[in-house]
């Protein structure tokens, strides 16, 4: 197995040197050009004191320079730490303080903010500054061991603060290598890249499938259905979250003809409803290939390329992934067909949470299986069906929101006696974040939403804040979130 991630990058950079790797609206870059820029940028990172194992924090817009920065960071042997551009100052301060990066690369408008956070210990720069007068001489790739950390991606938790998932060189290299075979990527492919590049899906899954196979991609700043439909005539693959497919179906311009040149539509990061799956096939003749993964593990299961792509199922475990269903409380492995917690093991499973050995230990079974927090079953054909989550988590448009984080901010307010944050069905985002509040006096829901915006990224801010005289509780005094979810299921039209 590849082991060292940059060696795997370099293999493609050399082999496909003259071929286009990426294009945006303005220009295209060949594999060779990207490799050369990554080599020069790695030299710049070294000039700035970035040494192997140091963290490079990145909060920039989606563009090709950021992609080169990712390659350069790996080439320099450092750890890439990408962050959602939506994060607020308090969220960023936590990440910077926890990860102690040596360098932060941010947008021009955030330079002052970055100077204030993380104890002021890191150097702060922008893409423009980094790329100005790059050294001519490229840095030599720094060799790394397979279990050295290549990237840290923060995921929140049901309790407490976000945790930095440490993904190793081999986690990323092995998952990418397996996927290009499984999904049949070739140098003839052209991927429509409309996902953000601060998550596993857009950064590792999409980019590595293209890079490892010698394919090319069109980098879009964000998903816009009209642009995506336009590009289908000259592209072959779209990778996205269910909201992409919902929005394509909402666009009457999208027809069988629009999709005639495409070979594959992949969906993941959130459940794709069987209805959307069927409606998509009816509209354009393609059966979406749904797969399942996590930040901590990369890709875990996938519907088959050739066999039956079953609506409402995430498919069998991918090659190299061991997946079992167990009883959550005891870890007892359950027989086929029974619903339990999904547990996984394989070369794709992360090394642990950054500086949180206890939290890491709590999420692995003694025999090394990682407890995903997802509930599911394996059917008689070996297909995995996810039926819910043990973890209290809302997935909105493919982005995770942990109710506990929003509830903590609400509960701190003097006008709130108690709050429960739930996910309710939403026609565009799949699930939407909703807060149900028991007020402690005069209460203005819009003012509350505005206040939350200061501390929370926009996607975490409840789309609705509702009030109740008293939150429903069970006999143990616990808030009955299930009942709340049922009560408000029709809030956004079901
Ligand atoms: C944006 N908003 C969202 C949102 N995205 N709200 C809830 N959920 C979301 N996902 C906010 C905006 O800030 C704005 O708020 C309002 O909602 C309307 O935004 P929009 O213009 O409609 O959103 P848009 O920019 O079009 O983005 C929607 C989206 C995007 C679905 C295209 O969120 C997206 O690309 N999601 C993909 C996320 C992803 O890559 N997940 C993979 C995680 S990895 P306001 O208040 O300003 O109006 C993983 C592992 C795996 O899960 O298995 O893949
Ligand atoms: P993240 O922490 O962003 O990596 O989110 C991972 C979670 O997304 C998983 O634990 C699942 O709950 C969910 N997820 C990913 N893919 C799918 C899918 N195809 N269907 C249902 N849930 C999914």
UniProtKB/TrEMBL annotation:
Q: Which Pfam families match?
A: AMP-binding, AMP-binding_C
Organism, scientific name: Novosphingobium album
Q: Which NCBIfam families match?
A: PRK07514.1 (NF005702)
> What is this protein called in UniProt?
AMP-binding protein
Output the superkingdom of the source species: Bacteria
Domain annotation AMP-dependent synthetase/ligase: ranges: 10-354
Domain AMP-binding enzyme C-terminal as annotated: residue spans: 405-478
Say which family it is in.
Belongs to the ATP-dependent AMP-binding enzyme family.
């Amino acid at each position: 197995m590849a082991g060292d991630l940059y060696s795997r990058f370099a293999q493609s950079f050399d082999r496909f040197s003259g071929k286009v790797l990426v294009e945006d609206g303005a220009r295209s870059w060949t594999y060779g050009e990207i490799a050369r820029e990554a080599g020069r940028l790695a030299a710049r990172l070294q000039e700035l004191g970035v040494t192997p194992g140091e963290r490079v924090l990145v909060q920039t817009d989606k563009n090709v320079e950021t992609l080169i920065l990712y390659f350069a960071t790996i080439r320099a042997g450092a750890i890439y730490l990408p962050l959602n551009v939506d994060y607020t100052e308090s969220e960023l301060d936590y990440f910077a303080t926890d990860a102690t990066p040596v360098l932060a690369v941010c947008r021009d408008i955030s330079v002052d903010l970055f100077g204030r956070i993380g104890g002021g210990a890191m150097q702060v720069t922008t893409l423009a500054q980094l790329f100005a007068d790059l050294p001519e001489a490229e840095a030599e790739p720094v060799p790394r061991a397979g279990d050295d950390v290549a990237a840290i991606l923060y995921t929140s938790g049901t309790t407490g603060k976000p945790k930095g998932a440490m993904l190793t060189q081999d986690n990323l290299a092995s998952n990418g290598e397996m996927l290009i075979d499984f999904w049949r990527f070739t140098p003839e492919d052209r991927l429509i890249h409309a996902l953000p590049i601060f998550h596993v899906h857009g950064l590792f899954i999409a980019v590595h499938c293209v890079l490892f196979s010698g394919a090319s991609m069109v980098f879009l700043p964000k998903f816009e259905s009209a642009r995506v439909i336009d590009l289908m005539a000259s592209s072959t693959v779209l990778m996205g979250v269910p909201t992409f497919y919902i929005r394509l179906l909402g666009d009457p311009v999208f027809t069988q003809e629009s999709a005639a040149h495409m070979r594959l539509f992949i969906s993941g990061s959130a459940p794709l409803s069987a209805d959307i799956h069927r409606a998509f096939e009816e509209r354009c003749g393609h059966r979406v290939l749904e797969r399942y993964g996590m930040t901590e593990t990369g890709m875990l299961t996938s519907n088959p390329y050739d066999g039956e792509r079953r609506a409402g199922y995430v498919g069998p475990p991918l090659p190299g992934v061991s997946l079992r269903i167990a009883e959550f409380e005891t870890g007892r492995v359950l027989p086929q067909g029974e619903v339990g917690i999904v547990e996984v093991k394989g070369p794709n499973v992360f090394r642990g949470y950054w500086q949180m050995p206890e939290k890491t230990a709590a999420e692995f079974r003694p025999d090394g299986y990682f407890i995903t927090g997802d509930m599911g079953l394996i059917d008689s054909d070996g297909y995995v069906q996810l039926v819910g989550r043990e973890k209290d988590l809302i997935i909105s448009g493919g982005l995770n929101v942990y109710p506990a984080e929003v509830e903590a901010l609400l509960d701190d307010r003097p006008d709130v006696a108690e709050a429960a944050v739930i996910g309710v069905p939403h026609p565009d985002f799949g699930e939407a974040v909703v807060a149900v509040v028991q007020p402690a006096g005069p209460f203005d829901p819009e003012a509350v939403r505005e206040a939350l915006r200061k501390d929370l990224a926009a996607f975490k801010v409840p789309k609705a804040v509702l009030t109740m005289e008293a939150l429903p509780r069970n006999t143990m005094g616990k808030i009955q979130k299930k009942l709340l979810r049922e009560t408000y299921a029709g809030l956004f039209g079901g």
